[in-house]
Write a structure and sequence with these properties.
Blueprint (H helix, E strand, L loop, with lengths): L1 H22 L8 H19 L6 H23 L6 H19 L2
Helix pairs in contact: 1-2, 1-3, 3-4
Length: 106
């Protein structure tokens, strides 16, 4: 389950960056001190995610994709109060299906 930890941490950092970009005023140069450390966290988490022993690369990327889509949905619906298109909901369903198939088909 260590891959889940790195996936969730990377997803949380990425969605935090997206949220800050949408909510902070000013140019992105002005807010660069927020962006650079979070980008380094994302890069480190992805590195740790793809180097977890016993976890194939495609499986790690599915876990990360699922984590980032779910956190984006939560931020979009709860914090930003934006409309989520049906295509996004379909993508979430397909990601859940991919994860279930990955875990059951061994």
């Amino acid at each position: 389950m260590i891959s889940t930890f790195w996936s969730l941490l990377a997803a949380f950092a990425a969605v935090t960056l997206e949220y800050l970009y949408r909510t902070l005023n000013g140019s992105w140069w002005h807010n660069l001190p927020f962006y650079v450390p979070l980008q380094l966290v994302i890069s480190f988490c992805i590195y740790k995610l793809v180097t977890v022993p016993g976890q194939p690369l495609i499986g790690a990327l599915i876990v990360w994709s699922f984590a980032i889509i779910v956190t984006r949905l939560l931020v979009t619906v709860v914090l930003l109060r934006d409309h989520v298109s049906p295509g996004v909901w379909a993508a979430v369903i397909l990601m859940v299906a991919a994860r279930v198939v990955q875990q059951t088909w061994r």
